[in-house]
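Quick log. Single chain, no ligands specified.
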Amino acid sequence: MDRKQLNEALRAFFAAHQTVRYQGVVIAVKSQDDFSVVRSQIEAILLEHDVWETPGEGTAPDIPCVRRNFFDAVFLPRKRGLVIFSPKDWMLDWSEQDEATFWTGIADAFGRHEIVIMTVATPPVIAQLRVSLAEHELGRLPFSIWLSRHQSIDHLQGVLS
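-> predicted structure:
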């Protein structure tokens, strides 16, 4: 994967996405191998965001983490945007319905801070994303961008393919 192309595409996307109403973004990486490469680029671009990589580190909730506490930590207003890598790490004992509610919450997040989620595109995750988010490609990169079905993408036409 060309890191320069990856960096430029992500920078263009996040610059265009700053003005949208629905602030939830899910980046679904096609393989675990590509996960670390994409993660490092997102961290470099979104320096002003809080980052949750591992449960219990920094401002990230510890595990076990009940759904209500996790939702409060993610969705209550905060001064900085939030990036969560592998949110399934916090969902250890969650029901399928609790997980689905989280993904719907990402799609409905508006008027708050930006929430960027990065996950591996497993069939169960993709099935849940399809309920309330729409998939978009960002060039020929090994991941897809999922945005709220409520969000117009007219302003992103030059960025999304």
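The beta strands are 24-29, 50-52, 82-85, 115-120, 133-137, 143-148.
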